[in-house]
Design a protein that fits this description.
The structure is a single chain. By secondary structure, this protein is of the alpha/beta class. The protein has 2 domains: 276 residues, Rossmann fold (3-Layer(aba) Sandwich); 183 residues, no CATH class. Strands 1, 2, 3, 4, 5, 8, 9 and 10 form an 8-stranded mixed beta sheet that branches. Helix 1 packs across helix 16 and helix 6 packs across helix 8.
């Protein structure tokens, strides 16, 4: 398997988790390409862990010590006697480079060498999603009138994906993108129809993961994650391509979950934490409680203001991670971890904290105020804040406990306004770990970098548990029976 535009490895994690009845991996990554240097470090770390799980079915104890340190000492972990071989393999697997016409000779050489090292087989899979900002509906809205938009190179990065298909001819490919690509236009033409034509010319038939049949309509490629056990309403286009002339079995389709998974089920058991007050030299429990009590009073909450003030969290908390029943719990939780990583809150301005507390309390009461509905004392100082036609009137949004969350995207790295925690007692935006759980990254999955880089990586990924289900469909095409256990 080769992973391109890999991000922090969501697709890779799902596919790589699949094993057969003998415990042998069904898919093994031979090369991952990614531009972001922090995501590359995350990919290398996970690749090293995966190396030992293939051998011993467990990660080395030194990896858990690293997690319990809050991610300190990565350089030492790389040369630790328990991990050095895995990191050496990861260095050859993960390629930190931009894919494009100028780098194509180099990337072609890397791919060819990787495939040759593993027997030069042609029954391999290409996975990945070209960067999607230019296709996204929100991105197009923000850049309306921008004369450079039509020339954005991200419109045609799929051509690099196409070049790999044409040059190396994998049996199957899986390509993920935003659903905006179905309506996006470039140089006056429909992007999606152009992509379909290109893929057909390259010798591939397209199939849907959710609708059986050989001639899917564009909407048949949309996968609504909440229908498949993911605690998030993430709607993405995912293409399943099969090379002409292959003798693969019928793909089948994804099996819908019996019941939706909610925000509360995914993150409700994590330790309670509070936000810090910005600027940090003003942070105190007294200042924070004053903001919360004021917000609750404005929201009409008459009691409960004696609720205890939570701690601010940490890169590692030696506290229970909570119970999650069913498949999601089996996927996320790791008893060896003994706590929770990356569960610390951002610092927010007092006025934003009050908005968070007010809106979270209103959500508990079954109300969902928009920006223009906020009380005067909480309305942002923007000239069009009360304009019903103002863009992004839901820029402050609570992730409601009893529903799947809205889509977790990389914008979460910029601010937490759209990702307000549903518990009014905590009055904050989501932590990195909470966002990662909504994306279904296992609790032992560590994102390298500062907190901004961690949020960016989490939002820039395919949910691994969804990817596992995609991988099961592809595995069946190759006649492989998937075990219920995971790597």
């Amino acid at each position: 398997m080769i992973d391109v535009f890999a991000g922090p490895g969501g697709l890779n994690e799902g596919f790589s988790s699949l094993i057969d009845a003998a415990g042998e991996p069904i898919f093994q990554t031979v090369a991952s390409f990614e531009l972001d240097p922090w995501a590359c470090e995350t990919l290398k770390l996970r690749s090293a862990v995966r190396h030992y799980r293939r051998i011993d079915r467990v990660a080395p104890s030194s990896y858990y010590e690293f997690l319990r340190s809050g991610g300190r000492g990565l350089a030492d972990l790389k040369v630790h006697s328990e991990m050095a071989v895995g990191f050496k393999e990861a260095e050859s697997e993960v390629v930190c480079m931009a894919l494009g016409p100028q780098t194509r000779p180099e990337s072609d050489h890397i791919i060819e060498s990787a495939l040759q090292r593993h027997g030069g087989k042609d029954d391999w899979v290409l996975i990945g999603g070209p960067p999607c900002q230019a296709y996204s509906l929100a991105g197009r809205s923000r850049r309306k009138g921008d004369p450079t938009f039509a020339d954005d190179h991200k419109h045609v990065l799929y051509k690099e994906y196409l070049a790999i298909l044409e040059r190396f001819r994998p049996s199957v490919f899986v390509m993920e993108n935003v659903k905006g690509m179905l309506s996006s236009k470039h140089a006056g033409g429909a992007i999606f129809q152009s992509i379909r034509d290109d893929l057909s010319s390259a010798g591939y038939d397209l199939r849907s993961f959710v609708i059986p049949g050989s001639d899917p309509s564009p909407s048949d490629f949309i996968i609504r994650s909440e229908n498949y056990g993911i605690p998030q309403r993430r709607h993405r286009v995912i293409l399943l391509g099969v090379r002409h002339g292959t003798t693969l079995d019928s793909a089948g389709v994804l099996e819908e979950a019996m019941a939706p998974v909610t925000v509360e089920q995914a993150i409700g058991g994590l330790p309670r934490i509070r936000s810090m007050v910005s600027p940090r030299n003003r942070d105190s429990e007294v200042e924070w409680r004053r903001a919360r009590d004021t917000a609750w009073l404005i929201a009409g909450r008459s009691g409960g203001r004696t609720a205890p003030t939570p701690d601010i969290g940490a890169a590692y908390l030696d506290e229970p991670a909570g119970d999650i029943v069913g498949e999601l719990g089996d996927w996320l939780l790791d008893d060896r971890l003994g706590g929770v990583t990356l569960h610390e809150s951002r610092a927010h301005m007092t006025k934003d904290l009050m908005r968070y507390g007010y809106l979270a309390q209103k959500a508990v009461m079954g109300e969902r105020p928009k920006l223009g509905d906020l009380p005067d004392e909480l309305v942002p100082n923007h000239k069009n804040a009360r304009d019903v036609n103002a863009p992004f009137t839901d820029r402050f949004r609570v992730q409601v406990s009893g529903q799947a969350s809205t889509t977790v995207v990389s914008h979460i790295s910029k601010d937490g306004h759209y990702y307000i925690h549903p518990d009014p007692v905590q009055m904050r935006s989501l932590s990195v770990r909470e966002a990662a759980r909504l994306q279904t990254f296992p609790d032992d999955y560590f994102f390298v970098g500062g907190r901004t880089q961690q949020y960016h990586q989490v939002g820039n990924a395919v949910p691994p548990l969804l990817a596992r289900q995609l991988g099961e469909v592809v595995a069946r095409m190759f006649g492989r029976k998937v075990d219920t256990q995971r790597l």
